[in-house]
Amino acid sequence: MDDDAEAPFIDPESDYPCCWFCPALRLPRTGFRVADRPSRDWPFDAADGFRYTLEGRTPVCVHPGRVGLAAELIARTYEIPPLPAPGQEDPDGSPRRWWRLRRPGSRAATARR
User: 21, 75, 92, 109: which one has the fewest Cβ atoms less than 10 Å from its Cβ?
Assistant: First the structure.
């Protein structure tokens, strides 16, 4: 490739400490974004090995130190809701048991009989 705009940002033959699936090894600098860390905001796609932004599906590198760039995207902090007290009742009126503790918005784990 003679055109620098089409060349990958980092040469795959270099000793740069990139991940083997990093978009910087396959795309020019204008073809990917850099994030501060992995996040649900840019989920991993196992089909091609990239993380993508939710809007626009732009590939994302999540190791700014490895590619020598400043992070453009900052991951949100997600909080896990606290577990309910063991003595509380389920919304259906049954008492909660240790094997049926539910977090809001998740399916309950069922006990094996």
Answer: 92
Q: How buried is 10 (Cβ within 10 angstroms: 0-12 exposed, 13-18 middle, 19+ buried)?
A: buried
CA–CA gap between residue 37 and residue 16 (Å, rounded): 19
Non-local (6+) Cβ contacts of 107 within 8 A are none
> From the CB of residue 73, how many other CB atoms can be counted at a distance below 10 Å?
18
Instruction: Report if pTM > 0.90.
Output: no
What is the layout of strands, in order, in the sheet containing 59-61?
33-34, 59-61, 50-52, 44-45
Closest CA to 76 of 37, 34, 23: 37
Q: Map residue 60 onto helix, strand or coil.
A: strand
- Residue 80 confidence (pLDDT) above 50: yes
pLDDT per residue as tens digits for the range 5-60: 567 787 777 777 788 788 888 889 899 999 999 998 999 998 988 999 998 899 99
